[in-house]
Design goal:
- The protein is an alpha/beta fold.
- It folds into 2 domains: 218 residues, Spore Coat Polysaccharide Biosynthesis Protein SpsA, Chain A, CATH 3.90.550.10; 95 residues, Hexapeptide repeat proteins (UDP N-Acetylglucosamine Acyltransferase, domain 1, 3 Solenoid), CATH 2.160.10.
- The chain has 6 helices and 31 strands.
- A hairpin with a 2-residue loop joins strand 5 and strand 6.
- The termini are far apart.
């Protein structure tokens, strides 16, 4: 049985700047594979055959990258918002563009997960609810939407980003939803609408929102620390849906990269056409295409953007983010929440 999905990828990725000034966050790679491909490959394994990319920010980056309108074997439709519609507005618009009239899936495109979508669909059909959302347990739920439920899975409330220590549960909105078309009528017909702050509370009050917890691998990749963690998890085999090739001794290097034999690589990604000089230490880091690290550098828990150059004998520590084509002077010492580069 075929299944359609809406993938929400319209956000600007502000927490990942400067990397996202030129690249939507879902196009940032995990060990050389754009995250959007990992997301869709996982969905395809659960029967998703068609998907709508809900686009707003830098839509041409997606459309140009996949001119055949197929990503990871899934047929794509592009729904480009003329103005930001927020999450529920984006769902409403994408469903209209694709003329969706059967049960469908909605996924936040910056979530990397092994979540059991098949079980989520079964649970949704058992409850005959309008919308069912996947939940995931976290240590600190204060940055997420928290979802307390009854014993049968019916959602009692939808608490968006509660203050630390005040959350009624540690189960958060995992960004995977099953929708019935009739649920779209709960969304105002025009303008921006938030699914988390507006639509879900309405559905919960009507008794039409259910939720199912899943402890599978799950990561919101929206920060530099989380994006680095997602890459390290791939290198360590923690994220299993995509079969990543070329990982050797816990690191990955593109065949076109030039790396001196004296380089120490630990849990690091070196993407295409990168150049790494002699006596360099790279640990828990990501070098994006064309990055250059000159000799004698030590780089730990950092993201080096496309075609950026790190000068000789520099030491960069957690968590420096160097934007595209930026140059870091020789013998620099940088660490902390360092963001170099802009538009």
């Amino acid at each position: 049985m075929s299944l359609q999905s809406i993938i929400l990828v319209g956000g600007k990725g502000t927490r990942l700047r400067p990397l996202t000034f030129e690249t939507p966050k879902q196009m940032l790679p995990l060990a050389g594979v754009p995250m959007i491909e990992c997301v869709l490959e996982s969905l395809a394994s659960h029967g998703v055959t068609d998907a709508v990319l809900s686009l707003g920010y830098l839509p041409d980056r997606f459309i140009e990258a996949y001119p055949s309108n197929v990503i990871a074997g899934v047929r794509m439709t592009y729904a480009v918002e003329a103005e930001p519609l927020d999450t529920a507005g984006a769902i409403r618009y994408a469903a209209t563009v694709a003329e969706i009239d059967e049960t469908f899936l909605v996924v936040n495109g910056d979530i990397v997960s092994d979540l059991n979508v098949t079980r989520l669909l079964e649970f949704h059909r058992e409850r005959a609810s309008e919308v069912t959302i996947a939940l995931h347990p976290v240590d600190d739920p204060s940055c997420f939407g928290v979802v307390p439920t009854a014993d049968d899975g019916r959602v009692l409330a939808f608490v968006e980003k509660p203050p630390p220590g005040e959350a009624p549960t540690n189960l958060i909105n995992a960004g995977y939803y099953v929708f019935e078309p009739r649920a779209l009528r709960r969304i105002a017909p025009e303008g921006p609408v938030s699914v988390e702050r507006e639509t879900f509370p309405i559905l919960a009050a009507a008794g039409e929102l259910y939720a199912l917890a899943d402890e599978a691998y799950w990561l919101d990749t929206g920060t530099p620390q989380a994006y680095l963690q997602a890459n390290v998890d791939v290198l360590q085999g923690r994220h299993s849906r995509h079969h990543f090739t070329g990982i050797v001794a816990g690191s990955w290097r593109h065949p076109s990269a030039t790396i001196d034999a004296s380089v120490t690589l630990l849990n690091t990604v070196v993407d295409r056409e990168c150049v790494v000089g002699s006596d360099v230490i790279l640990e828990d880091s990501v070098l994006l295409p064309g990055a250059v690290v000159q000799s004698g550098c030590q780089i730990r828990s950092c993201i080096i953007g496309p075609e950026a150059v790190i000068g000789t004998d520099s030491v960069l520590g957690p968590t420096c983010v160097v934007g595209a084509k930026e140059r870091v002077a020789a013998a620099s010492r940088l660490s902390g929440d360092v963001r170099l580069g802009g538009v």
